[in-house]
Amino acid sequence: MNYMAITVLWAVLLFFAAVANGVQTTKQPYRTAYHFQPPKNWMNDPNGPLYYKGVYHLFYQYNPYSAIWGNMTWGHSISHDLVNWIHLEHALNPTDPYELGGCYSGSVTVLPGGRPVIFYTGADDQNFQSQNLAFPKDPSDPYLKEWVKSPNNPVIAATDGDIDPSNFRDPTTAWQASDGTWQVLIGGKIDGRGIAFRYHSNDFVKWTRSEKPFHSSTRTGMWECPDFYPVSIDSKDGVENYLKKEDTKFVLKASFLDHDHYVLGFYKTETNEFEVDITDFMEDNTDWRYDYGSKFYASKTFFDGEKKRRILWAWILEANGRENDKKKGWSGLQSLPREVWLSTSGKQLIQWPIQEIESLRKGKVAIHAQELESGSFVEVGGITAAQADVEVSFELTNLEDAEEMEPSWNDPQLICAQKNAAEEGKFGPFGLRVLASNNSTEETVVFFRVFKNHTRHIVLMCNDLSRSSLSKVVDKTSFGAFVDIDPLQEKISLRTLIDHSIVESFGGEGKACITARVYPILAIDKEAKMFVFNKGNLSIKMSKLNAWSMKEAKIVPFVKRRKSGHD
Ligand SMILES: *[C@@H]1O[C@H](CO)[C@@H](O)[C@H](O)[C@H]1NC(C)=O
Ligand SMILES: *[C@@H]1O[C@H](CO)[C@@H](O)[C@H](O)[C@H]1NC(C)=O
Ligand SMILES: *[C@@H]1O[C@H](CO)[C@@H](O)[C@H](O)[C@H]1NC(C)=O
Ligand SMILES: *[C@@H]1O[C@H](CO)[C@@H](O)[C@H](O)[C@H]1NC(C)=O
Ligand SMILES: *[C@@H]1O[C@H](CO)[C@@H](O)[C@H](O)[C@H]1NC(C)=O
Fold first, then answer.
1. Is there a smaller number of Cβ atoms within 10 Å at the N or the C end of the chain?
2. For this UniProt entry, which residues form the secretion signal (predicted)?
3. Which atom of ligand 3 approaches the CA of 522 most closely?
4. Nearest C-alpha to atom 1 of ligand 3 is from which residue?
5. Binding site membership of 271 for ligand 5 (Cβ less than 6 Å)
6. Is pLDDT at 3 greater than 80 in this prediction?
């Protein structure tokens, strides 16, 4: 069954890819080549990602009518490798009174026996948000093409006690507690306090709110798209079972203030309480975010039973204004799917693009290890620099010469803004200049600085966007993160994936991630260049650089085959 599904899917994909290649329209400079995008219009949150009968499914918030938010439906695409995709018809359209304002975000849960169910938010014409269910019409169909809404909808009404009905949405994947009852979290807000409400049910139909919220914070405002899942403390493998105890920790993620923040803790299965390691979100030095850019939002994970890993998807916003979105005719990408696991320190999560992405690499270019003197600039030539994947690592000696950190330097983004890529230091800036025009009038710079903080060394990773585009309307905020590595013991590594208007960077083997959207005017397509550089006044060693051009992923529409006879 599984084998059949994959084979058929692949054949269909290759066929329509061939068709699509023949009718390619004029290429826009900002459209991506290997990130997931629908052919046109507005897309936001990933919804209910799932591996089912040999097929990966991605649902997503989609407006079928325009490139601005509205009329939300669930778009639906399928894949056998999470790289190449076929678009199917929408899984959910707003048809019933409780969802006439839109079918908002939600998740998929696989019920015992293997039947999937979509748990999603419906907004009515007053934007009152209730929680609803939909089931596959034919669970034996690996493509899950048609979904039927439950006659019991809404299963959780918008008006439940003191809940603010306009801020009550995005159910998580549900799980079973040790007594067998179903548990689900829903994002919300009461009196300005961000909350993950917990509901429980015996039959998945009748749901009751638990007295205490699962977790909440006064600092955050509304929590959108909560996600809650186990991670192994001693392995990169993903965990599916919420009841495993000894070797498992839990992640609670909430989306607020433009970022996806998470806390780690333990889940007590007997009482359904979540014991957080730290007291609150955004504690000093423990404000863990999936991504330190500001365009990675509303993410969701799923357990991939085929490869025993947990995969993270997120919505990547545009940054060049609504008018440009309308002109382009589209808005929004999905991030590259990232594998996510707990670091060996147990303090934070590690993220890395799924291995399948590497199947798009071609034409490897390697630059041999060398000393980068102060002021060096080496071009990474021979690749399509606007559509590329690059890995580089650096080694530092004489670290006692590093600059002392000032006590007030605790906000990495602020340090990166003050000490941008043009500001010469001792160790740093060094790193990559990507999407750079001939004379670097335009360039997006991903770089490091290394400081001394008493007896420790601090590695700062920055993404300077101030010169990323000559356009005036583009958001060019710079980003920064501390990378938890010891440069005395470890190399400082960077992997950056460039795809025309997106730059996704992974520092310290996935310990700090920064995603940026950029809209160069000069440095597009063949005009784009890439350099490795050192502008610090101490020399450093580049121990390795490998770069690849990236092939285009096949992301194609599904064309209905006409049935013979009646239709
Ligand atoms: C929503 O759809 C209706 C047509 O059904 C259309 O008139 C309206 O402009 C759409 N709104 C948005 C924001 O796309
Ligand atoms: C090296 O950088 C530091 C800034 O940290 C500066 O004070 C110093 O003058 C620089 N030295 C040289 C030789 O440029
Ligand atoms: C950039 O430089 C290359 C080689 O020097 C040249 O072929 C190309 O036309 C230049 N592009 C622009 C936009 O000046
Ligand atoms: C860099 O090149 C662009 C066009 O390719 C040009 O407009 C600009 O003046 C150049 N800047 C410098 C400093 O040469
Ligand atoms: C630098 O060290 C001080 C004192 O130990 C500490 O409070 C501060 O958080 C450190 N800074 C960073 C960025 O780690």
1. C
2. 1-22
3. 13
4. 438
5. no
6. no
CA distance 240 to 205: 23
Q: How many CB atoms lie within 10 A of CB 333?
A: 25
CA distances from 162 to 191, 408, 488 (A): 10, 42, 54
Distance 380 CA to ligand 4 centre (A): 21
d(CA 160, CA 61): 25
pTM: 0.93
384 CA → ligand 3 middle, Å = 15
Cβ atoms of 246 and 233 within 8 Å: the answer is no
pLDDT per position as a tens digit, 55-68: 999 999 999 999 99
- Which residue is associated with the tokens 């993950």? 196
Mean pLDDT of the chain: 93
- Average pLDDT (220-245) is 95
In short, whether 454's Cβ falls inside 6 Å of ligand 5 is yes
Q: Using CA positions, which residue lies closest to atom 1 of ligand 4?
A: 439
**8 A C-beta contact, residue 504 and residue 32:** no
Q: Structural domain boundaries of the chain?
A: 41-353, 365-550
Residue-wise pLDDT for 457-483, tens only, equals 999 999 999 999 999 999 999 999 999
Cα dihedral 208, 211, 216, 218 sign = positive
- Domain 41-353 fold: Tachylectin-2; Chain A (2.115.10)
DSSP sequence for 429-490: SEEEEEEE-TTSSS-EEEEEEEEEETTEEEEEEEEE-TTS-S-SSS----EEEEE---TTTS
Catalytic site positions: 45
* 99 phi/psi in degrees, rounded to 5: -135, 20
**Ligand 4 center to residue 433 CA distance, Å?**
17
Distance, CA 458 to ligand 3 centroid (Å)?
Answer: 39
Tell how strand 555-557 and strand 85-92 pair up: parallel
CA atoms within 13 A on the CB side of 467: 17
Ligand 1 near 150 CB (within 6 A): no
C-beta separation of 389 from 547 below 8 A: yes
> What count of residues does the chain have?
567
Percent of the chain with pLDDT over 70: 94
DSSP, collapsed to helix, strand or coil, labels residue 112 as coil
Residue pair 298/260 in contact (Cβ under 8 Å)? The answer is yes
Q: What is the mean pLDDT of residues 93-106?
A: 98
Terminal alpha carbon distance of the chain: 27
The pLDDT assigned to 18 comes to 46
Beta strands in 80-151 (DSSP E): 85-92, 102-110, 116-123, 129-136, 147-149
Q: Does the CB atom of residue 92 touch ligand 5 within 6 A?
A: no
Three-state SS for 152?
A: coil
Q: Which of ligand 2's atoms lies nearest the C-alpha of 537?
A: 1
For a mutational test of ligand 5's pocket, the pick from 408, 410, 414, i.e. the residue with the most ligand atoms closer than 8 A to its C-beta, is 410
Residue 244: the pLDDT is 82
Q: Could you give the count of Cα atoms lying within 13 Å of 259 in the half-sphere of its Cβ?
A: 17
66: exposed, middle or buried (Cβ count in 10 Å: 0-12, 13-18, 19+):
middle
Determine the Cα–Cα distance for residues 133 and 436; give it in Å rounded to an integer: 48
